[in-house]
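=== RUN LOG ===
request id: a7f3
mode: sequence -> structure
chains: 1
length: 444
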Amino acid sequence: MKIVIIGGSAAGMSAAAKAKRVDPSVEIAVYEKSDIISFGACGLPYFVGDFFSDSKMMLARTVTQMREAGIDVNIGHEALEVDPNRHSVKIRNIRENTVETVSYDRLMIATGATVFKPPFFRDDAPNLFTLTKLEDGIRLKEALSRKDIRDITIIGGGFIGIEAVEAMLHQGKRVRLIQRASRIFNRVYDARMTSLMEDELRSKGVSLVLGEGVETLEGEHRITHVRTDKARYGTDLVIVATGFTPQTAFLSDIGLQMLSNGAIVTDRMGRTNLPDIYAAGDCATVKHMLTGEDVYLPLATGANKLGRVVGENMAGKEAYYPGTLGSSCVKVLDLEAARTGLDEATAGRLGREVSTVFIQDKDQTHYYPGQTDIYIKLVYERKSKKIVGGEIVGGKGAALRVDVIATAIAAGMTTEMLGMMDFCYAPPISKTWDPLNVAGNAAK
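=== RESULT ===
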């Protein structure tokens, strides 16, 4: 049995490691375009912000470790094309500029995603940055060390953009964030939740420019101004964080089923529609646990889990990924935000009759120092009262309460059950009625 994996991402290396554990005799070859594997890009904003200095801390596994485990890892190798009929892949050795064709019994595509470049993007500007690769982070961190780099413009109000805001503030910079939509996290969080986050950003000196679309980046050699459809802003450096595009263009003509954005459609075993070809990670879809839909959610959690499932299946087992709830969280300066499951708009599109409840509460008792506000939203089926979604914004520790909501959704719990759930209590940690109890009991 020969397994070929294209991409040394989290999904690819999770699959390789698991397949080797399941069947030590299987032959596994990994081909990775860059010089590193198992890179945790989620740490990039905090590396750039100088919360830690050793970039190697973002590497979960090294090439040497994987080779010692019996996995043939080839860095600096780019997949050019796949022939599903011949069960082969054409690979280019980037350093030597040579091409070879390798055969496979089973193939995994784990090529990840690349940053989406809007029409205004400029490849010729040395002070324009994206934040997806290790070299991006190293180059940006070096640029930030210059004393003449003071005013930073971040384009995009999603996860990377908001995390980049904190990084720039930690580096002592003045920050402007431009978002085309009228609010940050426009399609992710309830407007009441994003309002809280926006207030937090403004309170720390961030200039929020909402409802303006960037049209051009001005400057002959370096970007000096960002022009939107409403105004013009001076800047010393620009970070573009406008989303991701699956790196699957080289596979567009082999018959793989894909979404309109190029994400490869997979089933709960990680299989594609082509025989013996699997996919996982930021280049592929996952099944939604509640709807069964094929969704594109480039999250590290799903990549690692589906990657593990693919590894088992390529090695001869029969494993299934239960599906995603899209659980995610983000730190917004001194606030934490998290969400899981469905919002009411998605539920309505799918014909589900749902209700919502929104509460403001406190995270602990009032007489122990450090009490902060916490905001919780639940989405639940109107008739059955089963919980199908939720959001939380609050101080330190608030985001992890969403894990309870995710567990409740997976277990089919109702709001009544959540309202009476036996949560732990101590004055520094919670109240006798946890805010989640309160939310469950407030649902009608």
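=== NOTES ===
The mean pLDDT is 96.
The chain has eleven helices and 25 strands.
=== END ===
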